[in-house]
Structures are given as C-alpha cells and as structure tokens.
Amino acid sequence: MSALFPTYKRFDVSVASAKGTTITDVAGKQYLDFGSGISVCNLGHRHPAVQQAVEEQLGKYWHVSNLYDIPLQEKVATLLTDNSVGDYVFFCNSGAEANEAAIKLARKATGKTKIITFKQSFHGRTFATMSATGQDKIKDGFGPMLNTFEYVPYNDLDALKTALDDQTAAIMLEIIQGEGGVVVGDDTFIKDVAQLCKAHDVLLIVDEIQTGLGRTGKAFAYEHHGISPDIITVAKALGNGLPVGAMIGKAALGHVFGPGSHGTTFGGNPLAMAAADAVLEIIFQEEFLQDVVQKAAYLQEQLRTQLEQNPVVEDIRGKGLMIGIVCSEDVSSIIPKMIEKGLIVLQAGPNVIRLLPALTVTQNDIDQALHIITETLEE
Ligand code: PLP
Predict the structure, then answer these.
(1) Which candidate, 36, 80, 233, 322, has a CA 20 to 30 Å from the CA of 179?
(2) Full set of structural domains in the chain with CATH
(3) Among this protein's residues, is 220 annotated catalytic?
(4) DSSP label of 20
(5) Which of 52, 53, 35, 54 is nearest to 44 (CA)?
C-alpha cells in the first residue's frame, strides 16, 4: 500500500533517471519525454548549464532568508524585466503562488475585489487560485469558493464586456488555455481584452505559467499579440525542474508591495535562482527561440499531414511546442498505449493529447514521436 495521499492517478512508469529528452525507468526501459514534467524541463532533463550552476551554488549557500540581499535574485529579476514589459519581480515557489501574489497585488493596487477569469481556465490549487480557475471539477467538495471571481467564456468579448463593471480590479488570462485543452486565444480577442483593460483602468494579469519562457517560440506568449500586460506570472520552466515561480509587475505597482505586504520563506531560494539564471540566459537568446519556431513548424506540419486522414483526429492546434491533438473521443485510454510504446505525452481536457516536448528536442526525437503517435492513433 502506498503511503501517499492518492491525489494522482499515476501511469505505470517508475522513474530511475532522466537526461535530455529521455526518461529511464527502474527496469531500464527508456521513454522519449514529450511532456517535460508538464512544461517544466524545457531545456531537457539535467541540462548541463543548469546542473553546473546549481552544483556551484550548492558549494556556496542554500538558504539565508529574504531578510538579506541575494545577488542572484537581482540578476534573475533583471533578466525577467529586461525581456518582458514588467519592471519588478516577486519570487515564490510555484505557479499557484505566483498567481496568488498577482491576485493580492491587483486587489491591493486597485482597492477593488472583482477579478474576471475564463471558463476552462486553470490557475492553480490554492484557495484563491482554485477559486480563480474556471473548471468545476477542480473545486468539487471544497465548499464555498472566494467570491472574488467571475467566469466568462474564453474568446468571447461580448461576455467579457457584460461582466466588466466599476468594481473590476483585473482580468486574468491565459494566452493559450493549457489544462483546459490547448485552446488558443484568438489574436483579436487577446488584443481586445488588453484594450478593454486600458479603457476601463482594469489590470491585465497574464498567466504565462505554461505558455511562458520559450514554449510558444517567444519569450512570453503575450508577445504574439503585441500587448503589454500589467502583471505576468511564470513558474514551471523557470527552474527547469527546481521549484520556483515569479510574478512580474509594472513599475506603477511597485509601491503596493512594500515591506511586510507579502512574503515567503523559500521564494527566490539561491539554488532555484542559480537554475533560473542558467535557464534564462539560454531561453532569452534570439537564436534559441528561432530554433524553437523552426522545430515547432516541422512538428506541427508533420502532425497535420500524417494525421490528416485519421478518422479519430479532428484538429491539431497550439502554438510553438505547445500542441494539442484534438480527438473525437476520450483519449484517456490512448495515452497509456503511447507510453507503453515509449512516448510520454499528456492529456488536456477529455479529448486532447497534449505535446510539450523539451525546447531542445531534436529532429530525430520528433520523427520518433511522430512514428509512435501515428501508429497508435491508427490502431
Ligand atoms: N497556471 C497555469 C496556466 C498552469 O498551467 C498551472 C499548472 O499547471 C498553474 C497555474 C499552477 O502551477 P503550479 O502547479 O506550479 O502551482
């Protein structure tokens, strides 16, 4: 019997080690990893630059508290602000914590409480971020949610306009809904949301926890739409496997989070910062992002041509290396078959197979994955 709370229905893979895009199980079987720990190991498992940075920091110090200056935090914060529209960074340990910080900041900055989010969104599992999430199944059994949030259909500007009122502090938006099924925000919709926020003096919070840090071929997915969010949240890929999150905000919000207003023991931990520094130095390079765009174009094009005639496949959607294969049936029995054949993929919503390979994936990896995907879906 397991001594773990059964919060996860686990696949039949017991991991012994991982390197690059390969996971090896305790029996020695190898898997090609097209899930990257849900868009965490975006540079592949144990990327040498990240490993070296963390090993060096291990020999210096591991934790001192945020009561003291940690130079690496300044370095990582500057990398994030130099490469985004934000000016200040608050470090934490996870995506949910980054969104918690964003919700607190938006409420304190505006003195208002209402935050509009979207149906099928996912923002985390803490009480505020679970409340922000637009999926009933996440909230089942937990009693009344925070009554701060109102949910409107995604990609529906009229519904958003109707929900917006003078009590609205912020709109919280995923540029692509990841957990909700790799649902891509329409370009006009995203632009209109940003404009609506400006016109009504409402803060725009963009949750880039899954879409950010190179995943869609840009440093941040909001860049595809030329918008300028007030608050951006990231986590997942920031540490390439070490737990870390960040909330990035505009200069005008700086004074709102003064001393004592918000905090965390572990946020900005030096080991996590060493990893984040190494990650961002790679991911923010233009050539790196160009390479992601090229590989993504190849993978998406091959999926479209190879699966065009497949009766189960309805659509291929996504951006960059965040891809959903939309099927006409529940995919929960298909995914274990792909894993059995040595390809780790993810599910998003009932009928979407989600691919989130490392951004360092090779053409050979892609071809191998395509072979397993097409073969399984043909069966
Ligand atoms: N926001 C989005 C868009 C996510 O995809 C996730 C996790 O999947 C979260 C928030 C929550 O992040 P975490 O699990 O690190 O708390």
Answers:
(1) 80
(2) 15-46+286-378 (3.90.1150.10), 49-283 (3.40.640.10)
(3) no
(4) B
(5) 35
